[in-house]
Amino acid sequence: METITPLPTPTATAGILWTIDEVAAYLRCTVRHVHNLLRAGLPHIYLGRLLRFDPEEVRGYLLKQRRIDVT
Question: For residue 71, what is the DSSP state?
Answer without folding.
Answer: -
